[in-house]
C-alpha cells in the first residue's frame, strides 16, 4: 500500500486499472489509504446525459429514493404506534425504550467497524444530538398540545436548510424551496384537519404550554443538527461505521439518561408479554429506520429526508383506523397528495444524479466514499441502482 500523506476514500477491488483508465468495480463501503482515482467517466458528463427539467424523473434512482423516504415514514409511524400502545398500558419510558434500538444498532454494526477502524470519538456529537432530539421531542408532548408541538417541529426543516446552506455550501434551487413549502402546506392541512375534528383539543396550563413549546423547539433543533451531521458523515464514511458508532455512543448516552430520568417510570411500569412485544416492535421499526436513513441522506439530502417524513401523520391515521378505531377527516387524503406532490416538485430541475452530488466532496466527488447510494459509486459503475 502506498505511503501517502493524505487519506483517500476508495472502493476495495482489483488494484490495477484497465485500458480505459477505469478501476474495475469493487466492493463498496471500504475506506483505504491508497490513492483514489477519479471516476473513469467524468461526473459532469454523466450529469448532463439526460436533458431537461425532468431529467432526474427519468432515472430509477428518483423512484428508489422516493419509495425509501416513504418506507422511513412508515417506520416512524410504526414507532409512534407502538409508543401509543405502551402509553395506553401505563408505560411512559421514552429514554429506556429507545435504548434497545441503540443496543441493537451497536450489536449489528459496531463489531465490524471496530475491526476495520476502531472507535471514532467525534461520533459522540452526532449521538448526543440524536439522543437529545428524541428525548426532548417526546418530553414536549407531556406538557404542550399536539398542535403546538407539530407546528414547532417545522423548525427542524428550517435548521436543516440553514445549517446545510452555511456549513455544507448547499444551494437550493427555486423548485426545491417551492417543494418544501408545498410539503409544509400539506402538513398544515393535516394539522388543520385535526383542529377541526377536535383531535388536538385539550387544556394545558400556560406554564406547561411554554415549557412544552421550549422542549419541542429544543428537540427540533437537535434533530435538524443531527440530520445534517449524519448526511455529511455518511457521504465520507462507510454506512456501517456511521450507524454503528451512532449506536455505540447513543447506547451509552441514552442509557445514562434513562437511568437518571426514567427510573421512577421504570419501577411503576407494567411488564407482561404484550408490553415486551410492543417494545420489540418499536425497536425493530426504529432499527430499520436508522439503517436506511443514511442511504436517503446519500441519494437525497437531510432536507428531503425531513419533508419525506411529513407523510407519517397520514400513515398514522390509516393505522389508527385499524388499531385505535379512529376516523379520518376528508382533508387527510388531500394533505397526503399535497405532500407527495411537494416531494416531486422538489426534484424539478435536477439532473441525472439528483441530490446525490454533494458540493463539499468536489466536482468528481473525489473526497467522498464509493458506497451505496453515492454519486461516485454510480459514476464508477453507471449500471448500478444504488
What are the key terms here?
mainly alpha, 386 residues
Short account of what is shown:
This protein has 386 residues and is mainly α. It is built from 15 helices and 2 strands. Helix 2 (60-88) runs antiparallel to helix 11 (273-299) and helix 8 packs across helix 11 (273-299).
Overall description:
There is one protein chain. With 386 residues, this protein is mainly α. 64% of the residues lie in helices and 1% in strands. It has 15 helices and 2 strands. It has a two-stranded antiparallel sheet. α4 runs antiparallel to α8 and α5 runs parallel beside α8. 48% of the residues are buried. The N terminus is likely disordered.
The proportion of strand residues reads: under 5%
Largest sheet: 2 strands, antiparallel
Helical fraction: 55-70%
Overall geometry comes to globular
Order of helices and strands: EEHHHHHHHHHHHHHHH
Q: Would you identify the regions where 5 or more consecutive residues have pLDDT less than 50?
A: 1-26, 32-40
Separation of the first and last Cα atoms: 29 Å
- Class by alpha and beta content: mainly alpha
Q: What is the β-strand count?
A: 2
How are the SSEs ordered, and which strands pair?
Elements: E1 8-9, E2 31-32, H1 43-47, H2 60-88, H3 94-116, H4 123-140, H5 146-152, H6 154-167, H7 174-197, H8 206-236, H9 239-261, H10 263-268, H11 273-299, H12 302-308, H13 312-323, H14 331-345, H15 375-380
Antiparallel strand pairs: 1-2
Amino acid at each position: 500500500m502506498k505511503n501517502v500523506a493524505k487519506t483517500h476514500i476508495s472502493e476495495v477491488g482489483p488494484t490495477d486499472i484497465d485500458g480505459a483508465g477505469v478501476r474495475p468495480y469493487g466492493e463498496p463501503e471500504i475506506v483505504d489509504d491508497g490513492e483514489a482515482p477519479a471516476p473513469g467517466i467524468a461526473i459532469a458528463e454523466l450529469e448532463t446525459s439526460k436533458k431537461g427539467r425532468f431529467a432526474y424523473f427519468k432515472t430509477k434512482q428518483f423512484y428508489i429514493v422516493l419509495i425509501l423516504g416513504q418506507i422511513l415514514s412508515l417506520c416512524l409511524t410504526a414507532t409512534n404506534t407502538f409508543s401509543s400502545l405502551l402509553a395506553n398500558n401505563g408505560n411512559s419510558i421514552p429514554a429506556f425504550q429507545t435504548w434497545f434500538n441503540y443496543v441493537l444498532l451497536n450489536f449489528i454494526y459496531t463489531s465490524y467497524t471496530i475491526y476495520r477502524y476502531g472507535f471514532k470519538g467525534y461520533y459522540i456529537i452526532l449521538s448526543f444530538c440524536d439522543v437529545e432530539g428524541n428525548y426532548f421531542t417526546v418530553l414536549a408532548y407531556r406538557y404542550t398540545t399536539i398542535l403546538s408541538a407539530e407546528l414547532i417541529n417545522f423548525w427542524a426543516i428550517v435548521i436543516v436548510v440553514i445549517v446545510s446552506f452555511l456549513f455544507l455550501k448547499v444551494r437550493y434551487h427555486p423548485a426545491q424551496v417551492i417543494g418544501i413549502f408545498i410539503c409544509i402546506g400539506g402538513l398544515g392541512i393535516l394539522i388543520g384537519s385535526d383542529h377541526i375534528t377536535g383531535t388536538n383539543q385539550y387544556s394545558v396550563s400556560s406554564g406547561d404550554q411554554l415549557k412544552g413549546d421550549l422542549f419541542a423547539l429544543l428537540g427540533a433543533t437537535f434533530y435538524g443538527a443531527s440530520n445534517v451531521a449524519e448526511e455529511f458523515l455518511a457521504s465520507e464514511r462507510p454506512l456501517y461505521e456511521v450507524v454503528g458508532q451512532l449506536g455505540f455512543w447513543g447506547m451509552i448516552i441514552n442509557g445514562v439518561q434513562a437511568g437518571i430520568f426514567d427510573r421512577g417510570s421504570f419501577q411503576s411500569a407494567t411488564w407482561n408479554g404484550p408490553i415486551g412485544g410492543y417494545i420489540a416492535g418499536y425497536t425493530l421499526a426504529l432499527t430499520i429506520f436508522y439503517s436506511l436513513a443514511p442511504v436517503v441522506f446519500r441519494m437525497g439530502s437531510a432536507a428531503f429526508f425531513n419533508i419525506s417524513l411529513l407523510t407519517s401523520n397520514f400513515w398514522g391515521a390509516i393505522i389508527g383506523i385499524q388499531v385505535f378505531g379512529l376516523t379520518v377527516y376528508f382533508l387527510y387524503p388531500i394533505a397526503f397528495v399535497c405532500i407527495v406532490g411537494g416531494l416531486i416538485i422538489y426534484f424539478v430541475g435536477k439532473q441525472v444524479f439528483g441530490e446525490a452530488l454533494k458540493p463539499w466532496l468536489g466536482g468528481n466527488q473525489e473526497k467522498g466514499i464509493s458506497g451505496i447510494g453515492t454519486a461516485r459509486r454510480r459514476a464508477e459503475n453507471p449500471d448500478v441502482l444504488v
